[in-house]
Amino acid sequence: MIDRLIERIDACGAPVVVGLDPVCSMVPERLITEAVETHGRGLAAAAHMLAAFSREIIDAVSDLTPAVKPQIAMYERFGPEGLAAYAETAAYARSKGLLVIGDVKRGDISSTAEAYAAHIGGAEFAGELFDPWHEDAVTLNPYLGVDGIRPFLDVCEKAGKGIFVLVKTSNPSGAELQDLVLERGGPVYEHVAGLVSRWGEPCMGARGYSRVGAVVGATFAEQGRRLRKLMPHTFFLVPGYGAQGASGRDLRGFFDADGRGCVVNSSRGITAAWQKGGRFGGNDVGAAAREALEAMRKDLKEALA
Amino acid sequence: MIDRLIERIDACGAPVVVGLDPVCSMVPERLITEAVETHGRGLAAAAHMLAAFSREIIDAVSDLTPAVKPQIAMYERFGPEGLAAYAETAAYARSKGLLVIGDVKRGDISSTAEAYAAHIGGAEFAGELFDPWHEDAVTLNPYLGVDGIRPFLDVCEKAGKGIFVLVKTSNPSGAELQDLVLERGGPVYEHVAGLVSRWGEPCMGARGYSRVGAVVGATFAEQGRRLRKLMPHTFFLVPGYGAQGASGRDLRGFFDADGRGCVVNSSRGITAAWQKGGRFGGNDVGAAAREALEAMRKDLKEALA
To answer: Closest residue of B to A108, CA-based?
Structure first.
């Protein structure tokens, strides 16, 4: 997965990921009305709306980004029907040639972690293998240690899939736990960085990076720079660009000397761009998303030049 | 939720929770055959099997336990259809008078955490409120700090629901992160205990315990005892009994002086009891589950006597 991601970043010309985090307040009224007219005022309509909105974004950006990152919570909010829209969205993105990074942040132990690993490894039933989630990689939470990660490592090794483990998140209160200073020196997140780096050793791709990546928030430039040095073979998935405040020049240190090793996510900055009005304002979700993504690509290219 | 849990523990006479963690290898062949005959070899059959197995367990134990804890990963493995079986299982348990603790271990930030909070708070769409998951409480992961917890706290305060935040998990490798010693003294999990305790202050129930509880693994008796003292108003959800090795006498210190403040979960020890053969061996899933639960109740009562 990580080699394909690097190849596609090169091919499409920018280290970006478009996050799909649809909430009702950023979906145009026309899509809600259409969903309710088709399915009535129920969860099936909510699911229809999520899938339709996600499709419009994907159609608009598929030639400008190597991957999308659907946020499963936004679909899970509406129950199993919402999650059917998540799976449909992931399958649709793949059909357009995009890699799918499922932002699921799962984490549990032993047989439970094995069950979650179906996200990327598929599930067997009655002698057949199913791929219900259509993801190429997922995000994971490290709080339970390697027990929660191991079944995913197996899939990364055998099936070439990828994971991104939370190391330093982009939100302010992440510091409550991640920044605690250890007796042996350094904060918790640097220790986690060491674990993630070690976990990834058996899963090296052909381009110098492991299929076990790390989530490192764009909002902490100094920490990102340091983590880049501590984890030279760990690819970073970087949330927090745009809506959360970071810009391209904050991110130079997250990349290696060749301008690689990092993919930057923007969600609302792209998917809710149509609400800012301007040239593509009104209801043209796709055109506004495309324009916002072009601006982000330019910003990152300038920062990396 | 926490007051109702305490009342039901008193009413049914034991501080137990039955964990529903169905995997194919512990489901009797007859249920798999029936599912495949009804739905063919697909995910709909897997979902049918999960729901049928869960129903047999619930029918067998509903008068002996105050609550069940379905493990969402085991259903999520089979995609949106599996998750429909999860929601159906939760609704069925509630219809039998049981509280439902969804073992979901979610954790994310801001608007994403809000979306996950639909698990206990429901989701609004087109002016109506839906409750797609049918849970009374859920487990959560603290790695992202209070940002990931806050939307759930709101639901706990306003709707009387509950959460259990991971503090010290029952698995060996949990120590890789949770047991790291801090410069200021004490391990990471004790610091997390302090956070959880503080987060729970605005959500106190009428019986001395907060609706913000903690997950504390049964496999670490000494740590459990110490956490009980550090968190006198935090209710413990305790996994790791039975199949993971802990027994009643290891758990005395997890309870308060009145034998309260704690509910002990057993999953495979009960749901897979039918595979151990013996008096209720063969295919009688329910009878074996009931017998195993009676034995667990007795063990805990003796330990607390």
So the answer is: B105
